[in-house]
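User: structure tokens for this one?
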Amino acid sequence: MPLVASGQYVSQVWNPDNGDGTYKNPVLNADYSDPDVCVVGDDYYLTASSFNCIPGLPILHSRDLVNWEIIGHALQKQLPAVLFKKPLHGKGVWAPSIRHHDGMFYIYWGDPDNGIMMVKSADPAGNWSKPVCVVKGKGLIDTCPLWDDDGRCYLVNAYAASRKHINSILLVRELSADGTEAIGNPTIVFDGNMNGNFTSEGPKFYKRDGYYYIMWPAGGVENGWQMCARAKSPFGPYEYRRVMDKGNSSINGPHQGGWVRSSAGEDWFMHFQDKGCYGRVVHLQPMTWKDGWPVIGVDKDGDGVGEPVLAYKKPKHNGYAWNNVNPVESDEFNTPHMGLQWQWHANYSEDYGMPTSLGVFRLYTHKLSKHFVNMHEVPNLLLQKIPSERCCVTTKVRFAAKAEGQYGGLIMMGRDYSALAIKRVGESFELQQITCLNADKGDSAVTKKIATFKPTAKDETQYKPALYMDIYLRLTVEKGGKTRFAYSLDGKKYKDCGKEFQMREGVWIGAKMGLFAVEPAKDMNGKITDCGYLDADWFRVEK
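Assistant:
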């Protein structure tokens, strides 16, 4: 049964549908790195890299390739679990591909430290299987399967030079018909070192009119181009050519993505553009064919190499028409399930926090390590992607402190981070800005005191009582990633505070915003205290 838009969420900060039969890029103005897409009937499904963030492998659904909603995640726990119980920044899920074959959806990805992984499901919005390691080994990344007309299965992949010390080559090997294991040795089908197509990676595998096609980016994330190769055999030999580059457009890259043919018979290509601290946003390009070769984007000079468009007519579609459906951002925390926009920085544990039936989401204070330096070690950061170049985020929270030194609040997280935190100091609370530059390199955070408040409430019981602070916290993002903080005690009048912060990307991901709650490993007397907690009433993303 085809899916329909469930929540009809409309973003206040970015909507790519112009409402007049055209769209503007990016169609996903958030960090959906290395996107891939498949079509089943009139429904499109997209997934993207999630690296160490959990739940991973986001699943997005669309009817027109322009309006998208998040419908689930294909990965609930990364393996080996003993390693991913802590943040392994930049590791985990690299460059997945999504395919539909014989009634099942498959997602393959490369874990650069463990091998080629796969999950599958009959329902993309439902439960997915546990990950299966299809090929073990280091440095195997950017994988994509192709089921041939005779039922045989082939897989293309690239290497990560950081793990394998080999780069810019593409490999093809045969898998078992069920796609669960390699039954043949790999063959190099392209070597970008020999022809100027350095950093060849992210290949996708297709078949059309008797030809096998591999499409991939080369030249690097920020300044690269799109390549295509074709052959009469999956193992080649392949002829190749460039099919899209930046040209005279303002879209740098353009980088890794995938081709999809609609049920209306049109061809489209989705790819990402690197936007620094915002991450890698997703563009939609028209695609045509010329002499058996794809032309991605618009070929203004007729040389067979397209360039990206910033606006274009929407794809034709059959059936139910979508308008103004966007990935969810704001959260009122009124359901017993965590919103699909949220991710943790490591495999989930119940002591991080959870939804409640009380109309709030509760985050428990994570006990920091004895040698804590900065928040780069914290797994229970509840974060989501930045949805636009400009946005304003406000959250209403109650912080419950069982002991001195517990703190929590609103954070903008990346290789650098800054947070607006409420911290218990004695019998009062301090509002602080906590900023760390080069957190990924182990540098220490700097704390600036902003204000001191008396508790807004206390426990009546004397059994391990808590002090409470009710406060509204706000961050505003301006173009270029400039971030400012503010707070309010009544939700009406906000006071700017702290120092302006420059957003910075994380490890292979854009900066992310959200909530946190932490405490020292032990209190001032060397004792382990009961956890405090942060109850978030709502989290609203607005202009």
